[in-house]
Amino acid sequence: MPYDRPYSVEETKQILDASEHRPRPDIPGGAGKTGHAISRHTLERRNVFDREVPKDDIFGISRNSLVPIIHEVLNSPAGQRELRKLNQKTKLRVQIRSVILRQNADLDIFTVYRPEREGAQTYFDWLSTTKGEGYIVQVYVLVIKIPRSSSDGIHIQTAFPEDFARTFGNEIVRPS
Fold first, then answer.
1. From CA 149, how far away is CA 143, in angstroms rounded?
2. Are 139 and 101 contacting, i.e. CB atoms less than 8 angstroms apart?
């Protein structure tokens, strides 16, 4: 079965659940970091303001609310294009960047802002409180092929919002 195929919502949920806390399958001996799309990039994170890595944004949503987002990303044209690359025997992982739109959704996003300033890096957490009706979100998903899987299984290592803007009617609202 090819990797670039339609994924159901239930299958996406199973993939996310199975990937959570499983060692990266592309690093031998279980030496890689474990899957953390849910535990680090949703409200299941213990402390949403604890920043361990430079790029560490989260969705202010539950585990179950992450499933339809990842489902949409996997089935998007960008997702299918990247997943097609996993059909090559030598390709072990792909990075999917896909834009989704959420109108009137119970969704919030915490981002880390780190501007370069005179050689020193400063940062602060920013909750997406700008008023609006919905979001345009660029989602990043790291997908890894599970070796020797009988069903061409995939592992979702991480999934988080890379960038976003609020929408208000036909306008895109950026924080000032």
1. 14
2. no
